[in-house]
Amino acid sequence: MSSVSDAAKNAPPAGGAPKPGPAVVKVMPQAQQAGLRRRHGRLLLSFAVLVILPLLVTVSYLWIVAEDQYASTTGFTVRREEGGGATDFLGNLGQFTGGSGASDADILYEFIQSQGLVEAIDDQLNLRAIYSVNWEGDPLFSLWPDAPIEDLLWYWQRMVRISYDQGTGLIELRVLAFDPQTAQIIAEAIVAESQKMINALNEAAREDLMRNAVVELDEAVARLRTAREALTQFRTVTQIVDPNADLQGQVGVINNLQQKLAEALIEYDERLQANATDPRLEQLQRTVDIIRARIDQERESIAQQEVASVGKDYPTLLSEYEGLVVDREYAETAYRASLTALDAARAKIARQSRYLAAYVEPTLPQSAEYPKRFVLSSLTALFLVMAWSICALIYYSLRDRR
């Protein structure tokens, strides 16, 4: 019955189109649960091999094998003697003209990292024995016993950390060793050798200063001797001790004539005003003319008079004489300045112009700060993950291109 009724319901009406039925919906099959594939397993395996395993090895070495290292800290700088004298002020002008060269702190900074310092301290303390004591147990942070000087210098730069501020000239050292006392001893040895180097700079500066002062004094003495000999030669040839003294007599005659001329002119004016027809006016006029002529003759004699021994006139000889006198005075002044400079150099040599000022004495460490296990472990993990990520990205980018 139900089937018949259902068929009747679904049957199309008589004489018309069939009645539309409900829409048919296509159902997709249910998605399967996601799971690990073979490529995911290879990725995890590479992460374990390239990251986890090296990190475990590094952490194990740092925490189990690596020996503790102690750091002794010291700080110092190079100080110069401060002076307020005029010679010190003039000497410091060289700093403003660019002639001072590298500073002492720069020299000391390079000296601490030099092979010469390493050899000197190695001769005193046997650095190879100190830093190779843990070679069998901790080869990564130790020095091999038979290391040549080049390798010792490389290892020295690892164990001696230098911090240098060029603005202030302060140098700070952090010396590492496998026990506290050794670290302090090495730091003290570095300070002692640095002081020796500063003393050597002082000695070289003293020698240069004294040598230059003596050379300048010798040159000043030679210049003064030459100037005096030239003046003596002039006097010998001309047979005139001082041309100025010889000319003073002739100049005195001219002065007397000028005085008499002035008196005669005054007398002439008085008589002319008193009596214009006075017969003595003519005689006074002749006297004035005679005096004026004599003055002209004396002046011409001074200008044209020649010294028979040299055949030169007095103005030329006077010019030569004054030039020789100026040369002698300049030589005497330079000689006195050289003597003063020599005395100043001797006084400066008597005291130390440079010295090493330690603002932090070498400390005795109480706890091991190195190696930085947490820092090294974190950095190792970071770089391993970064390297693994880059390699994975490169691999899949190349794989997708196929």
Provide an overview of this structure.
This protein has helices at 2-10, 38-65, 86-92, 104-112, 115-125, 127-131, 149-159, 180-238, 243-274, 280-304, 314-349, 373-400; strands at 70-80, 160-165, 170-177, 306-307, 312-313, 354-360. It has 402 residues and is α+β, with helices and mostly antiparallel strands. It has 2 domains: 66-94 and 102-216 and 351-385, 2-Layer Sandwich (Bacterial polysaccharide co-polymerase-like); 231-349. It has a 4-stranded antiparallel β-sheet. Helix 2 (38-65) packs antiparallel against helix 12 and helix 5 crosses helix 8 (180-238). The relative contact order is 0.13.
Main β-sheet: number of strands, strand sense, barrel status?
4 strands, antiparallel
CATH class of the largest domain: Alpha Beta
CATH fold-type name of the largest domain: Bacterial polysaccharide co-polymerase-like
Spatial sequence of strands, sheet with the most strands: 2-3-1-6
Distance from N terminus to C terminus (CA atoms, Å) equals: 66 Å
Q: Would you identify the regions where 5 or more consecutive residues have pLDDT less than 50?
A: 1-9, 84-101
Structural class: alpha+beta
- Would you tell me the overall average pLDDT? 79
Overall body shape? elongated
CATH architecture of the largest domain: 2-Layer Sandwich
* Proportion of residues in helical segments: 55-70%
Give the DSSP E fraction (strand runs of 2 or more residues).
Answer: 5-15%
InterPro entries: Bact_polysacc_biosynth/exp
Keywords: Coiled coil, Membrane, Plasmid, Sugar transport, Transmembrane, Transmembrane helix, Transport
Protein name: Sugar transporter
Coiled coil: 254-301
